[in-house]
User: Fold these one by one.
Assistant:
Number 1:
Amino acid sequence: MTAHTLIKNTQAESALIDAFAKSIDTLPGAATTTTARKTAIGGISTRGLPTRRVEEWHYTDLRNRLKTVPEGDARASGDALNALAEGIARIDLFDGNVPSDLPTGVQVTHLRDLLERGELDRSLAPADPEDVIGALNAAFVSHGAALTIDAGAKLDKPLELSASHGPGQAHLRVPVSVGADVEATIVERQTGEGAAFVTGVVDLTVGDDANVLWVLVQEQAVDTDQLTQMKFRLGKNARLTLAILNAGGRLVRHEIRGVLEGEGGDFQMRCVNLLGGESHVDVTMVLDHIVPNTTGTEIVRNIATGKASGVFQGQIRVAKEAQKTDARMACNTLLVSDEADFSAKPELEIFADDVACGHGATVAEIDEAHLFYLMSRGIPENRARALLVKAFVAEILEELDHEAISEALVSKVDDWFSKNG
Amino acid sequence: MLEIKNLHARIAEDGTEILRGVDLTVKPGEVAAIMGPNGSGKSTLSYVIAGRDDYEVTEGDILWNGESILEMDPAERAAAGVFLAFQYPMEIPGVPTMEFLKTALNAQRTSRGEEALKIPEMLKRVKAASSELEMDISMLKRPLNVGFSGGEKKRAEILQMKLLEPKLCVLDETDSGLDIDALKVVADGVNHLRSEDRAFLVITHYQRLLNHIVPDSVHVLYKGRVIRSGGKELALQLEDQGYAEIIGEAA
Ligand SMILES: Nc1ncnc2c1ncn2[C@@H]1O[C@H](COP(=O)(O)OP(=O)(O)OP(=O)(O)O)[C@@H](O)[C@H]1O
Ligand SMILES: [Mg+2]
C-alpha cells in the first residue's frame, strides 16, 4: 500500500482500506492480479474518494455521501428471488453455476477461475483516475461469471444474471462477449437486503450484426449503497438496447461507458429512475461515436418524490471521423415533491461536421388535458394524477422488444408506486 | 333532467367570452341535437358541462336533476352520470386501456355505493360492448387511444359510454371521422342506450347522423347562444338551406 496518505481518510475510506488489507490474501487471483488490485486501491487511498470538485462526480459527492462501508461478504443465496418473467434461464452470480436450462450457444465461466488464471488483469485496470467504480471493483472483485455467446446463436430464452445479496460487501464482475450475429436478451438484477455496499462492473462486447437487449433492474434496499458500471463496445451493425429501471437503493451510481466502434452500430437507452425517500441515484453516461454512420438515442425519465435526489449526466462524444452520426438524448423529470430534486447535465462534444445531434433536459408536468380526460370518466383527481405519473415512465418501458419483460418492468413500476406513491 | 340557464362562460386564460347566455333544457329520455356553425361554442358547451377548468362560468347555471353541478369537479360530475364523448379523444401513452376502464368503472361504482367489479366480470362486459361496436378487443391492449385511427377513437368513446352507463350523454361530433358503416354501428350502439332515464346531447354538423339517431329536439347554437330550437325537421331545413337564414332572423 502507498506509504504516505495525503488526506485524512473518512470513515468509509478507512473501512475500505482496512477491508482491503484484511482480505487481499484471500481474494482470488494470480500474483499479477494482486498487483493490479493493490494499484487500484492505492489510487483511492492516496486521493480519497472523489468529492464534488471532481467534475465527473460533481453532483454525487461520493466522499461525503458514502458514510459507512459494512464488513463481510454479502454473498447470499438468491433462491428467494423470482426471475423477472417466466421462461428465463437464471445464473446466480454468487455461485456461478450453470443452470440446466441454459440456452445453447452460451458458455458460463466462474469469475474466480478467470481471476486465478490472471486473465482479467488487464481489464481490471481502471479506465482513468476518475474511474473510481472500476478501481474499487478491481480491488475487491470476488464474485461473478463470464459469459460467452457463440457467433450466430439466437437465444431461445432470455438470460438473467442475479446476485441477491445479504448484509456486507459484494463486488461483482461480469465480462460478456457476444459473438457476431447473435440475438440475445439479458436481464441483470441488482437486489438484496441488509446494510450493504455493492460494486459491479459489466464489460460487454457486442459482435458485428448482433442484437442485444440488456435489461437492468435495480431494486436495492434503503440501506444499500451501490456503485456499478457497464462498459460496452459495439461492432459493425450491432445493436444494443439498454433498458434501465432504478427503483431502490440509498446511494446509487450507475455509469455507462459505451463505444460505438463499428459502422452501422446503434445504441438505444431507455432509463427510468424512480427516486423515493432519501435516496440519491446517479446515472452517468459517456458515449463515444468514433466511426461514421452510428446512431444512438437515450431517453431518461425520472420521477422524484420525498427528499430524493437524482442525477443524469450524459456525455455524447462524436469523433472527427464519425460523420453521419445521429445522436439524440432526452432527459425529462417529474418532481412530485417540493423537497425532491434532479440535476441533469446533457453534453454534446462534436468534432465531426456532418452529424445530426440533439439533446434536451426538461422538467415535465402532468398534462392538464389528460388529467381532465381521465377525471371526466369518473377517476378522482388523485388517482388520475397517479395514473399519469406512472404513465410518464411506463411509456418508455412499454415498447421493448420483449413483451413479457416490458410487462414485468411496468409491474415493477406499479410495485414501486404502491410503496412510494 | 338537464337545465342550462343563461350560461355564460369564458376562456379562463384570456377571458374571451365563448358562451353568451345559453338556455337549454333536456328531459330524461330526450335526444337533443345541437347544431351550429364552426366556432359557435358547441364543444365549449360540452366541456363546460363536463367541468373542464380551462373555462370559467361567469353567469348562469347548469342544473342536473335540479342541482347545480358547477361546483363539482369532472370526476364528481361523471359519478353523477355525466359523460362526454370527445370531439378529439386524447391519446394517453403509458396508461393501459384496460386498467383505465377498470379504474374508471370502479371509481364510479364505489362513489355510488356499488361493489367494485372483479376482473373477469369487467372483461366480460368489455368483450360484450366491443363486439357490439365491432371493435377488435386486441386494440384495448394498447395504451389508451394510442395509435387508434380517428374512427377507432370515436368507437372507443362509445365503448366507454356503454360501460359507464351514464345518465347524461354528451356526444361531440361522434360522427366525424367515422366511415358509413361505422356510423351505423356507432349509432346503433347509441340507440341501444336510449332509455327513459337517459338524456342525450348530440352535437353534429350532419343530418346523416340524425337519420340514425333520430332527435326529439334540435337546437342551433350561434355565437354562444341558442338562436333557434325546433323538432327534427329543423335539422332537415338546415341541411337544405344552411345557417344563413336562421342567423339572419336572429340578428
Ligand atoms: N381553450 C381555448 N383557447 C382559445 N380559444 C378557444 C378555446 N376554446 C374555444 N375557443 C374558441 O372558442 C370558439 C368556440 O369553439 P368551440 O370549439 O366551442 O366551437 P365549436 O362550435 O365546437 O366548433 P366546431 O364545429 O368547429 O367543432 C372558437 O372560436 C374557438 O377558437
Ligand atoms: Mg367542436
Number 2:
Amino acid sequence: MISVRNIFKDFGDLRILNGISCEIEKGECVVIIGPSGSGKSTLLRCMNLLEDPTYGEVWLGDKLINDIDPYLHYDAIEASKTYANLVSTGLTRDEAIAKIKKEDLLKKHEGPAFKKICREIYEENHLDINIARSRMGMVFQHFNLFNNLTVMQNLTLAPVKLKLKTKEEAEAKAMELLRRIGLEEKKDEYPSKLSGGQKQRIAIIRALCMDPEVILFDEPTSALDPEMVGEVLDVMRSLAKEGMTMVVVTHEMGFAREVADRVLFISDGQIAEEGTPNELFSNPKTQRAKDFLGKVL
Amino acid sequence: MNFISKLIELFTTVKYWEMIFRGFKMTIGISLGAIVLGLLLGTVVALVTIAKNSKVMFIPKLICKIYITVIRGTPMALQLFIMAYVIFAIRGFPQMLTAIIAFGVNSGAYVAENIRAGILSVDIGQTEAGRALGLPSSITMMSIVIPQAIKNVIPAIGNELIALIKETSIVSMIGMYDLTMAAKNIGSGNYMASYIVPMSVVAVFYLGIVYLLTFCIKMIEKRLRAGDKR
Ligand SMILES: Nc1ncnc2c1ncn2[C@@H]1O[C@H](COP(=O)(O)OP(=O)(O)OP(=O)(O)O)[C@@H](O)[C@H]1O
Ligand SMILES: [Mg+2]
C-alpha cells in the first residue's frame, strides 16, 4: 500500500531521518513508537509529502508520489557519466554502483542519457500528489478542523471540491459517519464549540469521508484531556477491526499492544527495531528499545 | 452670534450647497475608487509576497517588495504630485482618475502588509489539513486560509481605509475640488468671509462618512465572527 524506500530527511544541517524503509500492507495497523524528537512525525509526514524527503522515494500502491531518487534505480546509475568514468578506470559494474551509492557520487548533471532515463522512470510511475493525498487520510495531534467552516462543511469540502462526490452524496456519507460516532446533532456547529475529543472524532471521519485507502495518525490523543482519550481510541479501534489500513504514531502503549499488527520502534531517525507488539513489548532485542520501553511502560 | 447667522446663510444659499455637494462627490468618488483599487492591489500583492520562492516568482516578488518599501517610505503628498505632474501629466487625463490611482496605489501597500500578516497568523495546521486532504494550494488558500485571515485583519484594514478617506483632502494641493477645497473656497468668498463656518460644516461631513464606514466595518466583523464564539 505505502512503500517508503530509503528515505532521508534533513532540516538544514540536521539529519532527522537516516535511511528509513518500510512497507505498509493493505489492512494492516502499524504503530510507530519512539522517543520524543526521534523523527516519528517526520516519517509520517513524509508518507503524504507534507515533508519532502531529501533522498529516497515514497510509493502509494505501484505509483511514485515524490521525485525519483536515482540512487534507487540501477539503470539510471548505469546511464550516468560518473558510472562511465568509474567503469573506464577498471571497476566492475557492481563495484562502480556500490561506490557511487556509498560515496554519494551522482551530481546534478550526469548527461542526457541519465536525464532521459530518470524522466522515463518518473513519467511511467508518478502519481499527482494531490490525487495521492486524496487517497490517504491524515489525522493530526491538534485536530486542525477548519475553523471557518461548520462540522458538515468540514466533512464535505474536500470530496465536493475534488469532485469525488456530489454535494448530496458527500452529505449523506457525512451524516452516516456522524451518526456512527454519535455526533449528528453537531453537524451545524463550528469547531470552536466542540470538545477536544469531539473535534478529533470529527477529524477522523473527515478523513473517512474521502474513502481513503489508508489513514495516517500523528499522536491523535496527545492533545486531549485524559477523559477524552478513550472515545477517540474507540473509534480508531473499530476502524482497525474493519480492516482499515492505518499508520499510527502514538504514546498509547496499551492501544499499540492491543490493536497493532506491527510496531516500528524509531530511534535517531532509523527503525531501530520492529515486530509484533508481543515481540517488541515483551522481548525487545535492542538496548535502545529496552531503555525506551523501560521508561514508558 | 456671527457664527449662527453665517451658518444660517450657508444653509440657505443654494450656491454654497452646490459647492459642498460638488466637493462631496469628489471626495466620495476618490475614496471609493481608491478603496476598491487598494483592496484588489493589496490582496494580489499579499499573495505574491507570501508565495513560495521559485524562479517564476522571483521577479514579481522583488517588484512587490520594492513597491511596498517605496510607497510606505515616501510621503503621500509627494506620491500624489508625482502621479499628477509626472506619470499622468497628460492633457485631458481625468484628474479624479489620477487621484484614485495615487490613493489606491498608496493604500494597496498598507493593505498588502495587513493581509500578509493576516495570512501568516492563520495556524499552519489549517493549510496542512487542507493539503493533506488533497486540496490544491489555491483551493486551500481561497476556502480556508483567506476567510480566516480576512476575519483577523478587518479591523486593521478598516483603520487603513478611514485614514485613506481623510487623507484624500490633500488633493486640493493639486487644485482638485473636494470637500476641503469647497470649504476653503466658500470661506474665502466675498459674502461669507469666514473660514470657521464652512470648515465646521465640512468637518461634520467627514465625520459622517467616517462614522458610516466604521459602522459598516463593525457589521462585517460581527457577521464574520458569528462562527467563532469561544
Ligand atoms: N520543520 C522543521 N524544521 C526544523 N527542524 C524540524 C522540523 N520539523 C521537525 N524538526 C526536528 O526534527 C526532529 C524530529 O521531529 P519529529 O517531530 O519528527 O519528532 P517526533 O518523533 O515526532 O517527536 P515527538 O514525540 O515529540 O512528537 C526534532 O528534533 C525536531 O526539532
Ligand atoms: Mg511528533
